[in-house]
Design a protein that fits this description.
By secondary structure, the chain is of the alpha/beta class. It is 46% helix and 17% strand. It contains 13 helices and ten strands. It has helices spanning 3-10, 27-30, 39-49, 58-64, 99-104, 121-138, 150-156, 158-171, 185-193, 210-222, 232-235, 240-252, 257-264; strands spanning 19-24, 53-56, 73-77, 79-80, 94-95, 109-116, 142-148, 176-179, 199-201, 227-230.
Length: 266
């Protein structure tokens, strides 16, 4: 791996090879969500709580840069191109920024999405792979958010389809993969074993039960996962700082679920 990638990945992963990435790219699609109205304020809570890195949009980074901790990794989302004003069935990721822009903004990585099983799967793979080529030229890590959709994915089941998708993302140039937890440790372990790039799990819709959320995180790590890249389940509640602290200690200090719940206030 290139020196540039190695050094930048060190700002995303800790010495234990795990990463706690807080995702705050939602406003580009959903508008002014609760707790995201003030970029500097929410980033301050995330940074002080102990998160390792942020996955951000250009706007959030530019308006919240003063609150970014000196040792925090920054991953810039460069794909998107739709909002909630579009029919969700027609959501289609496009490359809307560049690796050059990410470098100029001081980012340590870029993020794109591939929807495997989508009718435009080939187009998504092609654009991500070309970004991967550019990233290699500049020593910039590439995070690929992986989704498995469509009839074939349903027939195969979540574990098998995500296993294929994660490996395909790696083959397309991903240095880090963000994807769904398949629901059990056995399937997730197979996903991790079959993908040379580290896998972090996403949170998706905000979960009602903190115990279930923390159990999912702990199980994913026990099965070989590299951490999490979550948004709404981190900052979507009334005490983002507490949640960040609880999740950071769960990931890096292996505290119990009960301890994490006490810290989070759940």
């Amino acid at each position: 791996m290139e020196t540039g990638k190695c050094l930048r990945l060190k700002r995303i992963f800790r010495e234990d090879s795990r990463a706690f990435i807080v995702v705050i790219d939602h406003a580009a699609i959903a508008g002014p969500m609760a707790n995201l109205e003030n970029p500097s304020e929410i980033i301050e809570k995330i940074a002080s709580g102990g998160a390792d890195a942020l996955l951000v949009t250009r706007g959030m980074l530019e308006k919240g840069r003063e609150s970014v901790r000196r040792d925090m990794g920054i991953i810039l989302r460069i794909s998107g191109g739709f909002t909630l004003l579009t029919d969700p069935a027609q959501f289609e990721d496009r490359i809307i920024s560049s690796v050059d822009t990410a470098l100029k903004l001081g980012a340590d990585g870029v993020a794109v999405t591939i929807k495997f099983g989508h009718q435009k799967e080939g187009q998504f793979i092609e654009q991500a792979s070309k970004i991967g080529d550019i990233c290699r030229n500049w020593g910039m890590p590439l995070l690929v958010e992986v989704m498995a959709t469509g009839q074939r994915a349903k027939e195969m089941g979540l574990g098998k389809s995500l296993s294929i998708a994660c490996r395909a993302a790696f083959e397309s140039g991903a240095d880090l993969v963000k994807t769904h937890y398949p629901g059990n440790k056995e399937d997730f372990h197979k996903m991790v074993k079959g993908c040379p790039a580290p896998i972090v799990i996403l949170g998706g819709e905000k979960m009602d039960s903190l115990q279930e959320l923390f159990r999912m995180i702990k199980d994913s790590i026990d099965a070989g996962g590299a951490g999490i890249a979550m948004g709404r389940n981190v900052w979507g509640g009334p005490t983002p700082y507490n949640m960040v602290t609880a999740m950071s200690r769960l990931i890096h200090e292996n505290i119990s679920i009960e301890e994490a719940l006490n810290i989070a206030g759940g």
